[in-house]
C-alpha cells in the first residue's frame, strides 16, 4: 500500500511524524506527549476507523485500517491506537455503538475465557491486556448460555492489576468477575474467540512489519555513517550480509502481513454472514503470517542490534523502541507455537488432497 496514494494512511503518517517522533519521546521529561498524540489521532477519527458512521465511527475499510497500523508500527506508537481500533471493530460486529476515548480488548490470550452469567454479570480474568489501566472502556467477547456475546465494559468497574510488557507498555491483569457490562449484544453467527485471535494476530502483523521497516531503514543509515578503521562499516562484507538478511526478514514480514490483511478484507465479512467461523483460506493466511512475522521480529531484532553494536542498546537510541515492541507484539493474540499447532490441526483435518489446492490457490 502506497502512503502517497491513501489519504487516510498519509494523515496518520503526518500525525505520527509530528507527535510520535521516537527521538523527541526519548528526550521528553514526562508522558504529556501521549495526550497530545491521542488528541490529534482522535481529531482525525483514526481510533474509530473501523466503526461504521452510523455507530459513531469513520467507516473506513479494513485495508485502510491495516495501513494505519503498519504506519503506527513504523513509528513504534505507544498509545492504544491498535487496541481501540480492534475494540471498535469487535463492537461493530455485534452492532454496538462505539464510545469515544481509549479502549482495549479482551481476551487476547488463547488460555483466557470470560463468561456472561444469567444474572448479567461477567466472570473470569484476562492476562496481559494491553493498556487496560489507560482504557476508558474494554470490549469483551464472552461465552453465555445464548452463545458468544460481545460486551462493552467500563474500565473503572474492573479490578486491574498493573503490569508491563517487554517495551514498558501496559500489559495488565484484568479481573471481570462481578462486573456488569454497559451493553451486550450477540456476536455474529460463527464468530468465536478464534475469530478474534485471528483478527488480533493480523493487526499485530501489520505493526511488526512496520517496525521491521524502520529497523532496516535506521540500520542502513547507521552503517553509512559509522566509521571503523577509516571506512564506513557498510563497506565491510559481514555488515553487508547482515543488512541483506535484515532486509529479507523485513520483506518477508511485510509480504506475509499484507497477504493476511488482503485475505481478511476479501473474505471475513462474507464468511461471517454465512456462518461457520473464519474460512480456511483466511485461517491459513492469518496463522502463517503471525508465525512468520513473529520469527522475523526475533531474527530482525538480533540483526539490527548486531549492526548497531552497543549504542543500539542504550536508552538514548531510538532502535530499542522498535525492537522491544516488535518482540512484545509477537506474543499477543497467540504465539508462534500456538499458531503452529493450530495450523497443524488444520493440515491434519484437511488431508493431503485438500491441502495442496488450498495452498496453491493463495
Description:
This protein has a four-stranded mixed β-sheet with strand order 1-5-6-9, with helices on one face. A three-stranded antiparallel β-sheet has the order 4-8-7, with no helix packed on it. The model has no long low-confidence stretch (mean pLDDT 92). The chain starts with 6 loop residues before the first helix and ends with a helix. Helices cover 53% and strands 12% of the residues. The protein contains eleven helices and eleven strands. A hairpin with a 5-residue loop joins β2 and β3 (122-123). α8 packs antiparallel against α9 (319-329). The protein is globular. The protein is of the alpha+beta class. The protein has two domains: 3-186, Butyryl-CoA Dehydrogenase, subunit A, domain 2 (Beta Barrel); 193-360, Up-down Bundle (Butyryl-CoA Dehydrogenase, subunit A, domain 3), CATH 1.20.140.10.
Core attributes:
four-stranded mixed sheet; 2 domains; alpha+beta; Butyryl-CoA Dehydrogenase, subunit A, domain 2; 12% strand; globular; 11 strands; 362 residues; Butyryl-CoA Dehydrogenase, subunit A, domain 3
What's the short version?
This protein is an alpha+beta fold.
Regarding quaternary structure, how should these chains be classified? single chain
Compute the number of helices: 11
Radius of gyration: 21 Å
Strand line-up in the sheet with most strands: 1-5-6-9
**Chain-averaged pLDDT:** 92
Give the H and E element order.
HHHHHEEEEEEEEEHEEHHHHH
Overall CATH architecture of the largest domain: Beta Barrel
Tell me the structural class: alpha+beta
For the sheet with most strands, the description reads: 4 strands, mixed
Beta strand count = 11
Tell me what portion of residues adopts beta-strand conformation: 5-15%
Shape: globular
Amino acid at each position: 500500500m502506497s502512503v502517497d496514494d491513501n489519504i487516510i494512511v498519509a494523515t496518520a503518517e503526518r500525525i505520527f511524524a509530528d507527535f510520535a517522533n521516537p527521538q523527541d519521546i526519548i528526550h521528553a521529561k514526562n508522558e504529556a506527549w501521549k495526550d497530545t498524540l491521542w488528541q490529534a489521532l482522535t481529531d482525525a477519527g483514526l481510533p474509530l476507523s473501523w466503526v461504521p458512521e452510523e455507530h459513531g465511527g469513520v467507516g473506513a475499510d479494513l485495508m485502510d485500517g491495516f495501513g494505519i497500523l503498519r504506519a503506527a508500527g513504523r513509528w513504534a506508537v505507544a498509545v492504544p491506537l491498535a487496541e481501540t481500533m480492534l475494540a471498535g471493530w469487535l463492537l461493530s460486529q455485534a452492532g454496538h455503538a462505539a464510545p469515544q476515548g481509549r479502549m482495549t480488548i479482551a481476551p487476547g490470550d488463547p488460555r483466557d475465557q470470560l463468561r456472561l452469567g444469567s444474572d448479567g454479570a461477567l466472570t473470569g480474568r484476562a492476562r496481559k491486556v494491553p493498556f487496560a489501566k489507560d482504557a476508558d472502556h474494554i470490549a469483551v467477547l464472552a461465552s453465555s448460555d445464548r452463545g458468544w456475546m460481545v460486551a462493552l465494559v467500563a474500565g473503572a468497574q474492573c479490578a486491574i492489576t498493573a503490569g508491563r510488557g517487554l517495551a514498558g507498555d501496559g500489559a495488565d491483569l484484568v479481573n471481570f468477575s462481578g462486573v456488569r457490562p454497559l451493553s451486550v449484544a450477540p456476536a455474529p453467527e460463527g464468530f468465536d474467540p478464534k475469530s478474534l485471535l485471528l483478527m488480533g494476530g493480523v493487526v499485530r502483523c501489520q505493526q511488526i512489519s512496520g517496525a521491521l521497516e524502520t529497523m532496516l531503514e535506521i540500520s542502513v543509515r547507521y552503517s553509512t555513517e559509522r566509521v571503523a578503521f577509516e571506512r564506513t562499516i557498510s563497506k565491510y562484507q559481514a555488515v553487508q550480509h547482515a543488512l541483506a538478511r535484515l532486509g529479507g526478514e523485513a520483506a518477508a514480514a511485510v509480504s506475509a502481513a499484507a497477504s493476511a490483511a488482503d485475505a481478511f478484507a476479501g473474505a471475513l465479512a462474507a464468511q461471517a454472514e454465512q456462518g461457520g467461523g473464519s474460512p480456511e483460506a483466511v485461517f491459513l493466511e492469518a496463522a502463517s503470517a503471525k508465525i512468520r512475522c513473529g520469527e522475523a521480529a526475533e531474527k530482525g531484532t538480533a540483526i539490527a542490534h548486531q549492526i548497531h553494536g552497543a549504542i543500539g542498546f542504550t536508552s538514548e537510541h531510538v532502535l530499542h523502541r522498535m525492537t522491544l515492541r516488535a518482540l512484545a507484539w509477537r506474543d499477543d493474540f497467540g504465539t508462534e507455537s500456538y499458531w503452529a499447532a493450530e495450523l497443524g490441526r488444520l493440515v491434519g483435518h484437511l488431508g493431503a488432497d485438500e491441502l495442496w489446492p488450498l495452498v496453491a490457490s493463495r
